[in-house]
Amino acid sequence: SLALARCGKFSHALEDADECVRVSPRWAKAHWRRAQALKGLKRRIEALEALKVSHESVGPQDDEGSAKEREEVEKEIRRVVVSLRREEIAEWIVGALQKLQDRKIIAPAKVEDVTDEEKVEACFRHVKISQQQSGTPKSPYHEKVHEWVLHSSLEPAEAYELRSAMYCRAKCLRQAQADARMAIAHTHLRYSEASGAANMNKYLDLARAYHQLGVAYTCEAKDHADVDLTQGVKCFSQACEYDSKEDSYQSKLKEFSEQLSPQDAKRVQDLLREVRAGDYRQGHLLAGDVDGKDFCVHQLNVSLRFGERTRKNLTAGVREELRRSFATHFKCKSPLDVQLSFIKFSEEAGLEVGLEIHLQASTSLKLAQEFAKGTAGGPESCATLLYELTDGNAVEQELGRDVAISTELLDITETIRAQQKADDFEFSYLVCETAERDEPKESEPSRPRTEIELPYKMYRLVHADGSPCERADKHGFAMSRVYYSKTELPDEVYVELCDSSLRWRQSSDEVKIILLRVPAGLRASRDLHVQILPDYVKCATRNVARSGEGEVYFEGQLCRGIIPEQSLWEYDSDNGLLTVYLKKMNLELLSTSHQHANMWWPRLCADHAEIQWDDYEKDYSDLPEPIMRQHEKNELQSKILNNLEYKERLKNESLQEADEVRRRMRQERLHEMRTGERLSWVDLSQGKTGRSKVTIRRG
């Protein structure tokens, strides 16, 4: 396999590597050779999977030889990931999400869904926009895919968030919203036991998830049936609360808040108050045996009033620390046993925060009774009682020591039992990690209300060897770069028809056609007949020309005229490729020589689909000689004119600057003569006096 790969025979190298894997499936070198063969065939995603298996098959960590081998595999994984096109990144992501779904790590789409081809296109658009926003040569997902491949670390929360972004681009808004909610829930579950520095990561992850949910509510036009600006603004507000330093969250919040009516803005505030009062309420208490004799739940309502403080002081970190500290002090079974019940603010009373603490043990009840007795003192004793519960000084610095505490202890056992009989609340299954619900079988997911438009249905863009090329970034005005010099030309891009019968490209003077269905091993003069007319091309076997029987490889009426006498063809019998070079007639260009775009053919044959103008960059390096000379003359004149304008602009700017300096000096001298004070022009322009006063003696 190694020898064949070095000879460039990658197909045969792959066959030997596959046989090697079959004989020794746990040998890392076998998968390495398979990856190299796949890489040579431009099947980079499969090569990446082979390298991943090779990395997992390397020997133990403590072996020096295995460590070097593992390091080399990791370097090769990075090289392959960096070489991936954005469309291949999208294909890998869609495949990775499908594998997680097959392994039941994430749930399949239940509301809306699209085909795999549409998923790849939607994911490609998301990857492309991420790259444009980052301003880097490579998309941020190149680095993420490298990490996911190397460490197999695509967590469920991240997978749901990524799938939500993909479904937004696929116009499946309801499914995108459902996946974003799942991302939020799994983020809570992932960090359920976290504390300290890990909580900061939790806030950042929650901010991203809420931002994605907001995008899912607002990514289409306002008149779309699945768009809800109120919910979107609410989610962007939550994202800003968790991460106030991210500018993109703030800009989204500002953009959509301005579109809300006063009634909708009030509804957003109501929704946020409900959220801050506790996302999950008492649903977690229903997981146990509520009908048992030993089941007993008390609720301690705690009201904390902080003077001279506002809502801004009650940050996400402070809220989380309060909940965690109270849950630890009262020995609660779960952090969910402590919830925020309300947040109020007024100029007179200050900031008031309500907590609901659910107590399910006798020791917790005794601690609650002792805590209630300790709140009878003044602000200083209440502050001491409160901050003894919390770790560090962060909460005290934010909320201060002007604290008043009031408590109320209630027995809510019967209320919980009554809730057991009622319907469960909407998202309880997202936070109960061990709860299993018997869900009815749902119907197949529906198609989205509006469908994503797939490009390149009739053709695709490839290199000369047929491997796909990176898509060009489209501009709003369908602009594309043009090249007048052969030394600056990028890699050639061909248009390949969807039936894989041919691929073709063009320059300003020539059309190059590669026919792909001509068999190898023929003799060009004996077996092939190529007919080239001013508007017609045909390639077939000699039998077709003689008796009308045989095979026609290509036949078509050209889009525009050519010069048959200056056109030619060649045949590669080893690979079975027949290449036709057609000399353009360029009547359109010759009639309007200053409009070079007129030489561009919108299609090859009259019955072919039209290619988009900005699909790839234009080659004007072989314009007809008279037109090229005129172009070079115009460019030279334009360059001379630009230089003259530049010099004139510099001269005018210099004269203007000198005039400005004289004007300032005149103002300074006049002020000194009138007042006897010497002030700079800056002080005079700001209306200042008494600076650098100088007494002028007369006499």
Radius of gyration: 36 Å
- Number of DSSP-assigned strands: 15
Q: Please indicate the percent range of residues in DSSP E strands (runs of 2 or more).
A: 5-15%
* Largest beta-sheet details: 6 strands, antiparallel
Report low-confidence residues grouped into runs of 5 or more. Answer: 420-429, 433-440, 691-699
Round the mean pLDDT to the nearest integer and report it.
85
Shape: extended
Compile the SSE list and pairings.
Elements: H1 2-6, H2 10-23, H3 28-40, H4 44-57, H5 64-83, H6 86-102, H7 116-134, H8 140-151, H9 156-169, H10 173-190, H11 197-218, H12 229-242, H13 247-257, H14 262-276, E1 298-306, H15 316-329, E2 338-346, E3 350-359, H16 362-374, H17 379-387, H18 394-399, E4 403-411, H19 413-421, E5 459-462, E6 482-483, E7 494-497, E8 502-506, E9 510-515, H20 524-527, E10 528-533, E11 536-541, H21 542-547, E12 552-557, E13 568-572, E14 577-583, H22 587-591, E15 618-619, H23 625-675, H24 681-685
Parallel strand pairs: 6-15
Antiparallel strand pairs: 1-3, 1-4, 2-3, 5-7, 7-8, 8-9, 9-14, 10-11, 11-12, 13-14
Helix pairs in contact: 2-3, 3-4, 4-5, 5-8, 6-7, 7-9, 9-10, 9-11, 10-11, 11-12, 12-13, 12-14
Structural overview:
The protein has 699 residues and is α+β, with helices and mostly antiparallel strands. The chain is built from 24 helices and 15 strands. A six-stranded antiparallel beta sheet has the order 5-7-8-9-14-13, with no helix packed on it. β7 and β8 form a beta hairpin. The protein starts with a helix and ends in a 14-residue tail after the last helix. The C terminus is likely disordered.
